[in-house]
Amino acid sequence: MSEKENVKKTIEKLGYKIVYVPHGVIENYNACYKVVYKGRTFSPPAADKLGIPLNEIWISQKWKEFDKHILYHELREIEYRSRGYNMEQAHKLANKDVKEKFRGKPKHERLLRAINI
C-alpha cells in the first residue's frame, strides 16, 4: 500500500469486505480478519472463534470513527505475516507502523485513550 493510497481503496482492490459488527461480538479484539493475501490465507486464531468468513475484516461498530487507523494496522499486520513474521511479531510491527504514521494526530490520540493504550 503506497503512502498516499487510501486504506479503504486498498482493501477494495484486494477484494476484502469491511464488516462493522456489534461491539459485544468482538470486544476482546476490536478488529479481526480472515483474508487471502499473496496466495495464502492469514487470520489470527480469533477469526475461527468469531466465525469470520474468508476475505472479511471485522471492526467493532464502537470504533468505526477510527476505522482508517484500525484498517491500516490490520493491513500492515497481514503484510508482515506474509513476510514470515509470526502473529505476535506482526502485531507489534503493525502497532509501530501505526504509531509512526499517525503520531501526534488528534484523532489517533483519542483512539489510543479510548482503547487504553
Write down the domain tally.
1
Largest sheet: 4 strands, mixed
Instruction: Record the strand order, biggest sheet.
Output: 1-4-2-3
Spans of 5+ residues with little confidence (pLDDT < 50)? none
Over all CA atoms, what is the radius of gyration? 13 Å
User: What class would the helix/strand composition place it in?
Assistant: alpha+beta
What's the shape? globular
| Distinct helical segment count | 6
What is the string of SSEs from the N terminus onward? HEHEEHEHHH
Instruction: Name the helicity range.
Output: 40-55%
Mean pLDDT, nearest integer?
A: 92
Strand runs, count? 4
Give the terminus-to-terminus CA distance: 26 Å
Percent range for β-strand residues:
15-25%
Question: What attributes does this structure have?
Answer:
globular; four-stranded mixed beta sheet; 117 residues; single chain; 4 strands; alpha+beta
